[in-house]
Specification:
Number of strands: 0
Distance between the termini: 49 Å
Number of helices: 5
Length: about 140
């Protein structure tokens, strides 16, 4: 192998590593922005909740506001989990649709929510496991 070939390979590896770092950094920035938006939404609902309490709003309306607040927090958490999982999947070269399908399959089994499944897959992918590794593990578990 010539020095030119080795230089070209080294250059390609450096470009690949730089692209991976940029994707991870972009995912980190996006997650920070989502976190800030979720905190702002929570603060807005805190203000509304306090205003209603100060006005002596009835318990049913107060409960409705609390329910909406909880649902919005859960939706924000789901969004953050799915987006994080998708960004990691892209960064490591996994098919995003297949990763989303795997998360839905995990959640459909009833042992975890979709947000929890997304977090679990994101962690697995971040550790270097692939969807193919997951399929092999599942096939091994089903053997008699």
């Amino acid at each position: 192998m010539s020095a030119t070939d080795i230089g070209a390979i080294r250059g390609q590896l450096e470009l690949d590593a730089r692209g991976f770092r940029q994707a991870v950094e972009r995912a980190r920035r996006d997650m920070q922005e989502l976190g800030q938006e979720a905190r702002k939404t929570a603060r807005d609902f805190d203000i509304l909740e306090k205003a209603l309490a100060a006005l002596g709003a009835n318990a049913a309306f107060y409960g409705l506001v609390r329910t909406i607040r909880t649902l919005s927090q859960e939706a924000a958490q789901l969004q953050r989990s799915l987006q994080g999982m998708n960004e990691v999947a892209k960064a490591v070269g996994e098919n995003v649709e297949e990763v989303n399908k795997a998360a839905k399959e995990l959640a459909d089994k009833g042992f975890m929510t979709l947000a929890e499944a997304a977090e679990a897959l994101k962690t697995s992918l971040s550790m270097g496991l692939t969807l193919q590794d997951r399929k092999c593990w599942r096939a091994w578990q089903m053997q008699p």
